[in-house]
Amino acid sequence: MSTLAAHAPGVAGGGLSDVAASEASLRRFLHGLPGVDAVGLEARAAALGTRSIKTTAKAFAIDLAISMIDLTTLEGADTVGKVRSLCIKGKHPDPTDPDTPQVAAICVYPDMVATAKAALAGTAVQVASVATAFPAGRAALPVKLADTADAVAAGADEIDMVIDRGAFLSGRYLEVFEEIRAVRQACERGDGTAAHLKVIFETGELQTYDNVRRASWLAMLAGADFIKTSTGKVAVNATPPVTLLMLEAVRDFKAATGTQIGVKPAGGIRTTKDAMKYLVMVNETLGDDWLSPNWFRFGASSLLNDLLMQRQKLRTGRYSGPDYVTVD
User: Fold this and answer.
1) What is the dihedral of CA 9, 15, 21, 26, to 10 degrees?
2) Using a CB cutoff of 8 Å and minimum separation of 24, what contacts does 164-170 make?
3) How many C-beta atoms surround the C-beta of residue 233 within 10 A?
4) How many other CB atoms sit within 10 Å of the CB of residue 40?
5) Cα distances (angstroms) measured from residue 14 to each of 19, 158, 177
6) What is the reported pTM?
7) C-alpha to C-alpha distance for 305 and 151, rounded to whole angstroms
8) Which of 112, 139, 147, 194 is deepest in the core (most CB within 10 A)?
9) What domains sit in the chain, N to C, each tagged with a CATH number?
């Protein structure tokens, strides 16, 4: 068991089942988690970011990163044509090289789920949909649940929900916990299966590393399949220190409960160099078990283009012109 898990109240004895029995018990648990050493966290993230990946390992890492992308369009001007084009790109990222991996998922608003599902039929590419009044999360719970249920009914394989940051920052932890649980129930289909649930914290609004750690444990206790940094719609999105902190949280949760949870940094990850830093961080913190699209994703819209350019450079020895990749 990790040091953090051993010192978290209720974890050392395996007693997580009653953590959310009341507001008081949940608060006691979350505020009993060890405080984050901000200097140490940032130093380790910076040190991991200096590792280099060369030649064969780099080619493998680029293909792995492509396979981990949630290729995303979340704009008010999204059209059926744009979503279909994005799905084609997700299925065949480089039409000149059929060995290029497909992306993990196409992420769209709920009203575009059916379009994406039809365009991706017969492939392994998942359809992810943001829900729960994305990105602000400012809606009544029945509205959020209806938003989720509509996306699942339209065929969404994954739901990316946003937590109520106002409730969390006000210390209403049980309210946030119960909302996550309710959304998880709304992810269930009538056939006994369920869409996977990714819980977005909007870490740029959580103010402290301690809050990020608390939000991570809160979401995992509530049943998240993935924890996700950001919506990509605020000034500060995914950062290496915050992502490292979340990776450590899922490591400790696995040690305490035996349950493996995925992590998705999103927003601001645009270059192959950025992606490599995150993959090194995953490998060093969690090991091979998490180096899979099943357990780690990149939420990105522009990252894929740079990965494709770098991939072609490794394959051919030269960079292509700007028209080699599509501008999404």
Assistant:
1) 20
2) 164/137, 165/137, 165/201, 165/202, 165/205, 165/206, 166/138, 168/206, 168/211, 168/215, 168/218, 169/205, 169/206, 169/207, 169/211
3) 16
4) 10
5) 11, 29, 19
6) 0.92
7) 28
8) 112
9) 38-54+128-319 (3.20.20.70)
Residue with tokens 């206790």: 221
Residue-level pLDDT, tens digit, the chain, 328 residues: 344 544 454 443 346 778 988 999 999 999 999 999 999 999 999 999 998 887 779 999 999 999 999 999 999 999 999 999 999 999 999 999 999 999 999 999 999 999 999 999 999 999 999 999 999 999 999 999 999 999 999 999 999 999 999 999 999 999 999 999 999 999 999 898 999 999 999 999 999 999 999 999 999 999 999 999 999 898 889 999 999 999 999 999 999 999 999 999 999 999 999 999 999 999 999 999 999 999 999 998 889 999 999 999 988 877 766 566 665 5
CA pair distance 310, 319, nearest whole angstrom: 8
- Dihedral of alpha carbons 54, 55, 60, 62, sign: positive
Residues annotated as catalytic (active site), given as ranges: 160, 228, 264
Backbone angles phi, psi at 82, to 5 degrees: -65, -40
- The 10 Å CB-count burial string (b at 16+, else e) for 69-94 is bbbbbbeeebeeebbbebbebbbebb
Distance, CA of 70 to CA of 167 (rounded, Å): 28
Residues 6 or more apart from 100 whose CB is under 8 A from it? 63, 66, 92, 93, 94, 308, 311
Residue type, position 244, single letter: L
